[in-house]
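Running log. JK asked me to keep both predictions on one page so they can be read side by side. First protein, sequence followed by its tokens:
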Amino acid sequence: MSAHTPGLRDERLCWLAVEDKLRRRSMRGTGFFIGLSSLVRSADVAFGAPDTVRGFASAKMRKYAVAVDIVAMRLNSQERDVLRATGEVPEWFLDEVLAEARKVKLR
């Protein structure tokens, strides 16, 4: 990512910087169920795990999105300048997002 991202808010730039890592984290521990559901589905037996897995990962991603917005407000002006120029967040950012996500309550 470069400085050629006109009109994007810092919160959005932060999300773009960490989204892939967070998506991988949201799917941790679900591989067994996805593999098992594929096996069961191939035998034409209704299992339902894919929706459960997707729902779980989706809820985690929503929590992460809220946390990214909250943590983005903690960036100082120098960190914001680096974010806008390079598309990268500070080293501490992802750990703070994960900690904040644990506090997020979804309705």
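And the second, directly underneath as requested:
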Amino acid sequence: MPLTVDQIPDHELAGPGAARSTALTGLTVPARRRTVLRGIALGALTVGASALNWSGAIATRRARAETGRYGLQGWDRTDCRDAYPTGYDQLADTSGDYVNTYAACFGGSWRGSDLCEAGWHKFGTWMYGDVRADHVPVSTSCGATTTKNAWRWTTPDGVSYRCSDGYTTYWSSPDVGQTYGTICRSALP
């Protein structure tokens, strides 16, 4: 039979000659009110921290969609499993700061950090000596319906990169240009 609130005696009504409770007599440490309350508080903190860790709130950061320059959307996951369910072979950078590091990005004729501006694919006209380059970031598909501009990839050494898609037209003369798919690779904090 459960105990109701009305059946719990009030400590003030017990009187001066009432016997002490023997509920905690098996403890080697004297059971004082502060000791019991401290145990309850530490137990509650332990259960609360465990619940947060079970949900992943402590151990991992949640992925979030990023908005790049010019309003282009970045991917909100760290893979492209919709289009590549078994993964893909990363391609080494062709230029920039990460040529001699682990490959991270996939696709494009040219890949590198020199195709980036503020961590996203360049936009606009740039001059490289006598060669003019027109950079245009684009949104492409990772799977059937979702289009995004950038994906996040993590290399075997644990470093995460943003791979931002675009096209670059290199002009050897005012009338002769060649367009390539290009990927900006930038390190994420």
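Observation for JK regarding the second prediction: Residues 55-64 have pLDDT under 50 and may be disordered.
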